[in-house]
Amino acid sequence: MRRSAAMLLAVALIGIGITAARGSGGPDGPMLRYIDSHGGTPSERARLYAGRLGVIQASSPKPLLYLQWRLLNHLRVGPEAGAALSGDCCDTPVSSGPTDGVFGWVAAVRRVPNAPFVSDYLSTERPGPHYTTIPNCFRDAFDTATATLNDRARRFGLRSAALLAWVRTQSAVFDACGDARAALPPAIPGAPAWLSADRAYQEAAFALYNGRNLDAANRFAAIARDGSSPWRSRALYLRVRAIRRDALSHPDAASFARARVAIRELAATPPGTYGRSEIYRMRRSLAYRDHPDALLGVLDRELNQAAPYPDIAVSLRDYLSLSPRRTPRPDIADWLDTMKAYDQKAALAHARARWAATRKLPWLVATLSLVPTEDPGAAGLAADAARVPATSPAWLTAQYHQMRLTLATADPAAIRRRTDAILARDLSRSDRNIFLSLRTQVATSLGDVLRLALREPYCLTDEEHCAHPGWAEENGSFAASTRRGRAIGLAPDARLILDRLPLPERMAAGRDRRLPTAIRLDLELTNYARAVHLQDDAAIDAMAGDLAVLMPAMRQDWRAITAQRQGEDKRFAEFFVLAKIPGVATDLNDFYTRPTGSVRQYHGIWWDWAILPRGKDAGVVDPAWPGGYNQWTYSVSGKQDDSGMADLTCFGLCGAGAAPFHLPRFVAERTARAATERRSFVIYGDNQGPTKFPPGTVSAWEEVLHHAAAHPRDPRSPEALYWLIRISRWGRSHDRLGYRAFVLLHKRYAGSAWVRRTPYYFD
């Protein structure tokens, strides 16, 4: 029930951007976004508006997809049309900053002594049918009211009775924006002329906001005839607007005829008359209601012309809403709906038919974006993509889909040559990350992976915020800050590859100085978790030694591990650090959380760690699912299907035809050893009840509890019990672990600071 841009012109006072559950408190840090479907950074959008088309993403909003459709058809865009199609189409926000719109008005009123209370929130919409709302007041209304208030205060005094009356009346006018029960205060007797003129204007606005459009029109007409009114110059336009609003609210032949007569009267005024530039838009808004088929033809011609129409975003909005009236649908609407169709099979068949019939680039792009790699016709479409010339605006999109469709069968060396040539170009961040992912999947070695693994993500707020020193290290796992102050992340596809490698190769990666320290911490902690599962003492000591440097807050705990010989005391030291660090996992997927800040600030989820006896395995050898590395679980149509979630190249954003992950050959050659290791990875417990461990299994939390009970003089024992209670509250455990730890802590260590920190247990 939103109105068109013509209706949003505001004048005078009336207004003419799946994660693991977090267990131990603390914030869930922002997730890194490597692909942006809204045009990217301002500089990237500027290049797009100038005609530099990258990989087209079917998940982009329809206006942005239409912009790309224009470029595919060699039609101009330019900065003005580009900005209109990349932003909000037709709704003007009631505030864009702390000093304008509603916020500016509220601040101005609060400076007036004895002014009525104004809330920080002012409703500017009225309820519509079927749980909708209808915008009623807009930002310019508040801006003009603020400017008028400041002017009247300067001229007549901030403490004058007349100014207070003005504020009370205007506040009631704005109350009517969202509340039909609002009422104007009575006019003060003997009001000065300026206040009477403003009051007449406020009463007209009040009538308009309450839907008394013809009454408002008559009031504005009277103001237009008043040569002394400061609002006279704009009152004629406001009269016309009120009459037109009445026609849109009560559509019938008489109201439309009355509105068109009023618009003709405005058109007959001299050039420069206030509001005269809105004539065309007002006429179009009427045509949308009473001549929609004719308007659709006009819009179709406008949207297909070589130069972008000035109101291109509004025209597109109206065109898309009217296009279902025509069968077959107009080409632009047909293409946009096909790109974003929910039914992938039907949409692909339609796109194929249109491509075969027209041989137009947009339909090749649509077909490529929809076709899955296993489709029998995928090879033929890949060949079509290969024939797109390098001078074509669709070339980069075609290159992506050709590689996506042939990655599993093509010569890896050929893919490397093609991706390297593309990466040598000046690319947007999204396009660079897409082709870096393709290149990583045909990497030749661990060193090759690490060279390609670091990617620059998009900032979820603003670039200045994310450039703050330490932002990446403190707010996101697998991220760090570069020397330029920008965030850099270990890409999801690289993380998945590292997780498919045996422990020795992962240890080598964790020690590779090409990786930032914070990302090495992520690798080393997951390596430590794997080493503990494997009870590989050499690897445990090596990782503990590294982590004593990478995690200085726990240096003594890590050194305690290396100081112990193999046995129960060493295992206690190993498990003690696991108890203090929630978020540790065996994989670099979304179940891992980087420890940041002090030890007490670490957050994440604790797992019920268990060490299997030798010769036993967990019965699970499958590596982590690719979708676990896709924090955004992107999909094109809004459905989260397996293919889109497992797409670590474009995250499902480039189309329903997702890019399945391809394992580099050098990794595939090591899968047997990696699978053997993974058989030892087991996490028991789901808080559903007691867990049955196989005979001989070492439960990490039971061993910590046993050590605390058996070693009352160990200064770590009361602290260990404290952490077990937290694990029972925030993590995975079994057999009333928290209760047992609580009883022992309070019975044996009554005077300990750890008792004071744990007045409760959680069962």
Please characterize this protein's 3D structure:
This protein has 763 residues and is mainly α. Helix content is 52%, strand content 3%. The longest helix is centred in the N-terminal third of the chain and has 18 residues. It is flat, with a radius of gyration of 33 Å.
Write the layout of secondary structure elements.
Layout: H1 5-8, H2 42-49, H3 62-72, H4 78-86, H5 101-109, E1 125-127, E2 133-135, H6 139-156, H7 161-175, H8 193-209, H9 213-225, H10 232-249, H11 253-267, H12 279-290, H13 292-304, H14 312-322, H15 331-339, H16 344-358, H17 361-370, H18 378-386, H19 395-406, H20 412-423, H21 429-440, H22 446-453, E3 454-455, H23 463-466, H24 471-475, E4 479-481, E5 487-490, H25 492-499, H26 503-510, H27 517-534, H28 537-550, H29 555-562, H30 568-580, E6 608-611, H31 642-645, H32 665-668, H33 671-678, E7 683-684, E8 698-699, H34 700-710, H35 716-730, H36 737-748, H37 753-756
Antiparallel strand pairs: 1-2, 3-5, 4-5, 6-7, 6-8
